[in-house]
């Protein structure tokens, strides 16, 4: 179920994200929990690599998928606790992530669209590119997979205690 794919074993993928992965801004994501069972960096790598793999099969822009997928949640607060006056977390965090991403790298219009619209469904900004749709759907899939993995572990732990 949940867990990181072997992205490290894919030199083509690593070449797309290596410069970003080694920035303090991206490494800082390791300090934040995402969906209970993973760090925000692990989640972002899951979204990035899965999107990249889908993009390869569909002949899409794999560079944009890998890079924007890694940067889509580049924000540094606990979304469960932090509340905003100017909108919901679903609306605010993609904009914060975009602003943070622009501080560490130049982004193409496609990468910007991917980051700011990855919460499509929870927000109304319609994705402009096929790649944006991919990251949005993969992000939803990963969030569910990661959360369900957390629930499965809780159930397994409770069963061990009760027997």
From TrEMBL:
Domain of life, per lineage: Bacteria
CDD domains per UniProt: HDc
Protein name in UniProt: Hydrolase of the HAD superfamily protein
GO molecular function, one term: hydrolase activity
Domain named HD/PDEase: residues: 36-153
Alphabetically ordered keywords of this record: Hydrolase
